Amino acid sequence: MSEKLVSVIIPTHNRGNLITETIESVLAQSYGNIEILIVDNGSTDDTENIIKKIKTSRIQYFKQENSGGPAGPRNVGIRKSRGEYIAFLDSDDIWLPDKIKKQVEILECKPETGLVYCKAEFFGDGFPKGKTYPGKGYSGEVFDKLICGNFVPTISVLARRETILKTGDFDESKSLRAFEDYELWMRIARHYHFHFIDEALCRLRMHTQNMLGTDNMKSHLGAMRAFCSACDKLALPGPVRKPAFSHHCLTTAMAWLEVGNYTNFKIFLERSMREKTTGLNLAICLSNAILGGRLFGKLYPLVKNFLKKRR
Questions:
Q1: What's the chain's Rg over C-alpha atoms?
Q2: Residue 211 in this model has a pLDDT that exceeds 60
Q3: pTM for the full model?
Q4: pLDDT tens-digit series, residues 246-294
Q5: Of 117, 136, 244, 301, whose CB neighbour count within 10 A is largest?
């Protein structure tokens, strides 16, 4: 039986120094029937010349004006793709050789599954080896877990074409920049099963030009915006929305606490309590009331690190 076509969509912007390694990791896949759609988001370096030097008929190259983020180029790639399956890869990251083969096998035998993802291993100069994301993944109906926090690396995703077409593509709003992927995964998870492969089949490069880097505060605020956007599009009822929103408010509150902004910490903690009182936010509220914001803020990182070591 012939292999079904997989469309690999690679948005890029000024990645001439890295994109060759990315493309080579796709060409080295053990799965053969692959097309590569590279959408250049207004590069001003030598990205175009480097891509055109790669001798293969699998690559389609498109260049457009800079839209400001990867959502637009990914949507262009989706519209121009022909594959029954669609995968996403950023132009500074790489795949391991069996990634697509293993994911296609899952989709072929699990018709109820709309999206397959796997672990991603972080790499880069000065970055500790062996660290992977997510620490824990989930399969089946994952919506209730996903709305409390993202655990799906974009470069690990292989989805059915019909899944994306029925759900809708990436939201290109500026407010969701760098979180449009999380917002889409939530919308997909509302209607389709996910499958997690507990194996690092791709590598996520860490460097100073990552869109978010290690900014914990931006991550939490962006995730909250993505959650609210998905809630609006899905018209989620209050009993589903409130516990998850309470969780997002609480994690954002703790991020504010870690940077010493006690005013915003208190605002988001109180909002978390209003949405849904849980044992965790109640305990944090009481600890803050007893110790005071500054002392609690100093003790919190110690408790957080202790809990991490216990896991």
A1: 21
A2: no
A3: 0.93
A4: 999 999 999 999 888 999 999 999 999 999 999 999 999 998 899 887 8
A5: 117
134: cis peptide before it, omega within 30°?
Answer: yes
Element (H, E) at 85: strand 85-88
Q: How far is CA 242 from CA 118, 234, 247, 274, in A?
A: 29, 14, 9, 9
Q: CA-CA distances (angstroms) from residue 231 to 30, 197, 236, 240, 244?
A: 39, 27, 5, 9, 10
Average pLDDT of the residues of the chain: 93
Closest CA to 199 of 95, 83, 89, 46: 95
262 with 293: CB under 8 angstroms? yes
Taking the domains of the chain in order of start, what are their residue ranges? 6-205, 237-310
Q: Phi and psi for 254 in degrees, rounded to 5?
A: -70, -30
* Joined tokens for residue 37: 């759609």
Find out whether 67 and 176 touch, Cβ atoms under 8 Å.
Answer: no
Q: Does domain 6-205 have CATH number 3.30.470.10?
A: no
Structure-token match 């793709």, residue found: 81
Q: Rounded CA gap, 151 and 213, in Å?
A: 17
3-state secondary structure of 95: strand
CA 115 to CA 58: how far, in whole Å?
A: 23
pLDDT digits (tens, 9 = 90+) for 102-142: 999 999 999 999 999 999 999 988 777 889 999 999 999 99
CA distances from 79 to 7, 89, 154, 184, 265 (A): 11, 16, 18, 16, 42
The pLDDT, as a whole number, for residue 126 is 77
pLDDT at residue 239, as a whole number: 94
Question: With the C-alpha atoms ordered 168, 80, 174, 19, is the resulting torsion angle positive or negative?
Answer: positive
192, 166 contact by CB (below 8 A): no
pLDDT per residue over 3-19, tens digit each?
999 999 999 999 999 99
